[in-house]
Write a structure and sequence with these properties.
The complex is a heterotrimer of chains A (246), B (180) and C (375). Chain A is α/β, with parallel strands linked by helices. Chain A has ten helices and seven strands. Chain A has one domain: Rossmann fold (3-Layer(aba) Sandwich), CATH 3.40.50.970. Chain A has a seven-stranded mixed β-sheet with strand order 2-1-3-4-6-5-7, with helices on both faces. The longest helix of chain A has 19 residues. In chain A, 54% of the residues are buried. Chain B has a seven-stranded mixed β-sheet with strand order 2-3-1-4-5-6-7, sandwiched between helices. Classes of the chains: A alpha/beta (246), B alpha/beta (180), C alpha/beta (375). Chains A and C meet through strand 2, helix 3 and helix 5 of A and helix 3, helix 4 and strand 10 of C. Strand 2 of chain A pairs parallel with strand 10 of chain C, so a sheet runs across the interface.
């Protein structure tokens, strides 16, 4: 009998530390599958941000570097420049990338650093307990925006793919969602493309994955998927914003 | 032997080059030397000054309250650093740009028309080399040959350039005058 | 000099000859780093250390290494962390305000047990302070260079030659102890030029990072490395902290550096480091010329502090110590007083904010303290 589905070797045996229903698990698995398929497990360096993504250090069966909060693209820059043959990817949440690490992501992108950013956007600070993120939707409640995000006071959700698309250097910028199998497969293709471009030395590649946070959104996982389709994906349209291969 | 010198002037007068060249030449001649530049926050047009120490022994304090020699490239620098020369020390004036007003009587005053001589030689840029010539003549801190070796190494070996620097150095040595 | 050396390594002089050169402190430190095997530098402009990144931008590519101008001090030190995490010997440099921003990254390096060298070319503080030279960061460097209670070896040169030698040494210590090392210079050492001889070029240093940091967390990982200062499990964090504490004690045994100058008969002992110690050396000559028997203890390692040097002073002979620094209020005072357990009076002398400290001021301070003690 042929084995058609197994745990990727790029994942450790440990059970996922993410909350039940959280799509971090899907994102982590997609990356691990690709590292297996592309035979990069022993050549990969995962640069993990501060946030729920840090838990990846329990899961990625690859070399892992944990970055100070927001500096993830700077750490990935140092690692990739010092070891150009490695497949380096940063794994960052929206607080890390779009708030405290805004300078680092903009400048790494602008320098055209040859690594891949996996950007998990779930429009909240998950690990610290559901505070307002730069990506929180207008009206969406957060523990630091109990009445919901009020744009008069806190502005609007920051759209990182669109912002980064203003720069000349990035080679691949795309946004996918992890809400359903069809979109998950598209996301996997996008990450494969980004990793492939990096290994070909093309330059900066950026993959945003719309995700959820059942714990802090306060809804069951399945309801989260509907909410994402009805709200998140309307503010953050899916698509490929830049494809340097074309 | 230890000599402490302050060189001061406008930015652009080659103040730092004077200090650095004295340091290079001393280092090359096997002595100890220390060059310390002092800048204001302006990138252009401010005042510039530097300290140089030339010594046969180990150099301690990079800057002392008093120096042996002040090289003043312009009037404001003369006035600013007048009080920092030790009694019995030397003030070397660029008399093309400043005038001695006799504010101190316990120092020796020497003059060199650095800018005028530089023009005479053919390049206003060598005024600082003229001043170096005047200084080594007055102080005996370095020989003409020691100075020329450093100038050749650091400021260029192109024959016409070297010749002009050689002439500037020699003229500075010859034309410096001590006021009575 | 070794033959493998890139000829452009020599800013002046000729290849193959150990010859004296007249070098600026900042550039000499940068060259010393490359000679020590450093192959990665990231920095950000700030006075008075700009010649270090400028020099590195010219030299590092020629030496086969990486130069990066980061978007901030914070990013620069994190680039260094990234390079170190894949086993490359790396350096960053800055001055006070920038070192504050680097605190996060330095703490991360220490927490993740990674080597790197950080050069602080000090200016007057606090805040943005003055851009002129000062010694305003002793406490920051020796007590808490970042959050979390870690320590680093802090080396303080007082000449350009010593800046070269200590920078060269710093890389070895960083790798040996898997911990960042700080070279703490003042802006004067950075901008002055002096005759120096450069050390021999070492091969580029890379180190294995296998088994470092928190590999513990990845029990099922095969042949992989987890470099992190984020440990999540309190017992393991405590274990690492206890080990770090043992390392700091080891430094006190093995890594103390200090110069004793004319101490044999000294009744008045100046304690000074860096440029202040140079002014003190001249002052001591002048004091001895007046029949005043002065001497000096010059800490070269500020952490570990030369406690034993101070402890073994003859308390029946030494009438007082003079803590002499280019910062006010002076910052070494507590360390000096602890070392002598208040058995010898400690006076202080200094200038601050970038104002020049001269030998004459030190002479006057010693004479004033003698008068005070006589009362």
């Amino acid at each position: 009998m042929e084995k058609i589905y197994e745990r990727p070797k790029s994942l450790t045996d440990r059970g996922l530390a993410y909350c039940p229903g959280c799509l971090h698990g899907v994102a982590t698995r997609l990356i691990a599958e690709l590292l297996d398929e592309m035979d990069q497990r022993t050549n990969a360096v995962a640069v993990l941000a501060v946030g729920c993504g840090t838990l990846g250090m329990f899961h990625f069966n690859t070399d892992v570097v944990v970055s100070p909060h927001g500096r993830t693209p700077a750490v990935a820059t140092g690692a990739k420049r010092a070891a150009p043959g490695k497949l380096v990817f940063s794994y960052q949440g929206d607080g890390d990338l779009a708030a405290i690490g805004m300078a680092e992501i903009m400048h790494a992108a602008n320098r055209g650093e040859n690594f891949t950013v996996i950007f998990i956007n779930n429009s909240t600070y998950g690990m610290t307990g559901g505070q307002m993120a730069p990506t929180t939707l207008v009206g969406q409640k957060a523990t630091t925006a109990p009445q919901g995000r009020n744009p008069a006071e806190t502005g609007y959700p920051m759209k990182m793919c669109e912002i980064l698309s203003q720069l000349e250097a990035p080679k691949y910028i795309a946004r996918f969602a992890l809400d359903c199998p069809a979109n998950i497969l598209k996301a996997k293709k996008g990450i494969r493309k980004a990793f492939g471009m990096q290994m070909a030395g093309k330059g900066f590649t950026f993959v945003e994955l719309l995700s959820n946070c059942p714990t802090n959104w306060g809804m069951p996982a399945l309801e989260c998927m509907d909410w994402m389709r009805e709200n998140t994906m309307k503010v953050f349209p899916l698509g490929v914003f830049r494809d340097g291969d074309e | 032997m230890e000599k402490k010198i302050t060189v001061a002037g406008f930015g652009g007068q080659g103040v730092m080059v004077i200090g650095q060249m004295l340091g290079y030449a001393s280092c090359k001649a096997g002595r100890n030397a220390l060059f310390l530049p002092k800048y204001g926050p302006e990138q252009r047009g401010g005042t510039a000054n530097c300290s140089v120490t030339i010594s046969d022994g180990e150099i301690g304090a990079p800057v002392s309250r008093y120096v042996d020699t002040l090289i003043a490239m312009n009037q404001p620098s003369l006035e600013k650093f007048l009080g920092s020369v030790r009694p019995g020390g030397i003030i070397l004036l660029n008399s093309s740009l400043c005038r001695w007003e006799g504010k101190r009587t316990d120092v020796r005053v020497a003059e060199i028309q650095a800018d005028a001589i530089a023009l005479e030689i053919g390049s206003p840029k060598v005024a600082n080399i003229v001043v170096i010539g005047a200084y080594i003549q007055l102080s005996g801190a370095l020989s003409e040959q020691e100075m020329l070796d450093a100038i050749e190494e650091k400021l260029g070996k192109r024959p016409e350039l070297l010749e002009m620097n050689r002439k500037a150095l020699r003229t500075g040595m010859e034309r410096v005058t001590l006021k009575e | 000099m070794t033959k493998s050396r890139d000829p452009s390594a020599l800013p002046a002089g000729k290849e193959g000859i150990m010859e004296r050169q007249f070098l600026k402190g900042n550039e000499a430190v940068a060259e010393a780093a490359i000679l020590a095997g450093c192959r990665f530098f990231a920095g950000y402009p700030i006075t008075p250390q700009n010649e270090i990144p400028e020099y590195m931008s010219r030299r590092m590519p020629a030496a086969g290494g990486v130069f990066l101008q980061g978007e901030s001090e914070t990013a620069s030190v994190c680039m260094v962390y990234g390079a170190a995490s894949v086993g490359t010997l790396a350096m960053t440099s800055s001055s006070g305000p920038g070192i504050s921003l680097k605190a996060e990254g330095i703490s991360t390096l220490a927490g993740a047990c990674l080597p790197a060298v950080i050069v602080n070319v000090m200016r007057g503080g606090p805040g943005l302070g003055a851009i002129q030279a000062a010694q305003s960061d002793y406490l920051h460097a020796t007590k808490a260079l970042g959050h979390g209670g870690f320590r680093v070896i802090v080396l303080a040169p007082s000449t350009v030659q010593e800046a070269i030698d200590l920078t060269y040494k710093a890389f070895g210590l960083a790798v040996q102890y898997r911990n960042p090392v700080m070279v703490l210079m003042d802006g004067w050492i950075g901008s002055m030029m002096e005759p120096v001889t450069l050390p021999e070029a070492k091969e580029p240093v890379t180190f294995s990072y296998t088994g470092w940091g928190a590999k513990y967390f990845n029990p099922s990982g095969v042949g992989v490395n987890v470099v992190t200062s984020c440990l999540l499990e309190p017992e393991y964090q405590e274990l690492l902290n206890i080990r770090a504490g043992e390392m700091y004690e080891e430094w006190k045994e093995k890594e103390v550096l200090a110069e004793e100058y004319l101490l044999e008969d000294a009744e008045y002992v100046i304690v000074a480091y860096g440029t202040a110690a140079r002014a003190a050396r001249t002052a001591i000559g002048e004091l001895r010329g007046k029949g005043i028997r002065a001497g000096m203890i010059r800490p070269i390692s500020l952490y570990p502090f030369p406690v034993e040097h101070l402890k073994r002073l003859d308390r029946s002979r030494v009438k007082f110590l003079l803590d002499t620094e280019m910062t006010l209020p002076v910052q070494m005072m507590d360390d000096i007083r602890l070392a002598v357990a208040d058995a010898i009076p400690v006076h202080s002398c200094g200038r601050s904010g970038g104002v020049i400290l001269t030998n004459e001021e030190i002479v006057e301070a010693v004479e004033l303290a003698i008068a005070k003690e006589a009362r």
